[in-house]
Specification:
Two copies of one chain form a homodimer. With about 200 residues, chain A is of the alpha/beta class. Chain A has eight helices and seven strands, in the order αααββαβαβαβαβαβ. A five-stranded mixed sheet of chain A has the order 4-3-5-6-7. In chain A, strands 1-2 form a two-stranded antiparallel sheet.
């Protein structure tokens, strides 16, 4: 005796979600079919919509529905500052800390040779292009490296620091106010703000 | 600064899944968009398919893609026995314990007056009809109540026991081999098999 094929497919499909094993997937599938048809329909529609319309911003590489995202188009942001983060979630955390008014570049990853993630995979070619590409005639004067303080994040910061050496912009690193081994996504706003204020030049 | 609308919609839509809060939903949405477009597409398709084709079996009320499910159509099952479980997951657990060869009826819930769940919500009218409706000329001779040993599950078993009194079929309850307060879904096969073997007449 097995669940019907369509239900089994749904359970397996749910396992593409991070942290969802076979038992959770089963509970989720039954929950949706027993109690939340509307939610399931909305989820299917949102997935379709997101896959179709969400892309990367030409400037900062973050997710957006337009060619250039709202933040990169905003005249209220200081285009002489460029903060480099690993992930969109890190950018959101930084914004929630209200400590930074410049622009961003989202790597969508970190250097990790063991996982086969090299400079090309974290879009460093686009980062270089972005730095040489002024926004509203404002040239990037400082690049703030805000990658995580993990081994990969530190290596990424170091690599980018070397890469940008002599390119004209000052390069700084957010202060090690974060606990060693900590990740931006899981830190409180105060600590994050402190580490932005105490950033040091590389 | 907020995530684009399509991405925010996806995060909110993911929260319809049980056990998924705002932070998990954010992680899931980013994961799907960054690394698993194929998985996201498959999930959207599976949800659409399941919503369209999965329905309740006319006989046992379990999920199926056909009017009558495979188990109810199988000539190898003993149609004189009818086991009543709360949820499809309970039926799967029972089958995995390989201790029962009869038919099932899935309530898709349990009596819970505080949550507004009454006899009609757990399809007791259909259960009565099912018991009076022979399969392959075999009349139901024994009804085994295999609801959970929670307060609601026990109340449900008691209610159904009273309801079926004098209807001709013997009514039994799986043995209290399960720990008190325990749920079928989370028990090992051995304990479940034991409680099927030691079922007692009500």
């Amino acid at each position: 005796m097995k669940a019907p094929a369509g239900l089994q497919d749904l359970m397996e499909a749910l396992r593409c979600l991070p942290g969802v094993g076979p038992r959770s997937a089963q509970r989720m599938a039954y929950h949706l079919l027993q109690r939340d048809h509307a939610g399931a329909q909305r989820l299917a529609t949102s997935l379709d919509y997101a896959l179709k319309y969400i892309r990367h911003c030409e400037k900062c590489n973050n997710f957006t529905e337009e060619p250039v995202c709202e933040l990169c188009r905003s005249p209220r942001r200081d285009a002489t500052m460029l903060c480099i983060v690993e992930m969109p979630a890190d950018l959101l955390m930084m914004e929630q800390a209200h400590c930074y008014q410049g622009m961003y570049f989202v790597l969508m990853g970190r250097l990790s040779p063991l996982d086969g993630v090299g400079p090309r995979d974290i879009h460093l070619d686009r980062l270089l292009k972005r730095i040489q590409d002024p926004v509203r005639d404002q040239v990037v004067r400082e690049v703030v490296l805000a990658t995580n303080f993990t081994v990969e994040g530190e290596a990424t910061a170091h690599y980018i620091g070397e890469l940008l050496h002599g390119k004209g912009a000052k390069v700084s690193r957010i202060a090690r106010g974060l606990p060693v081994g900590g990740e931006l996504e899981h830190v409180d706003s105060g600590t994050l703000a402190q580490s932005m204020i105490e950033r040091r030049e590389l």
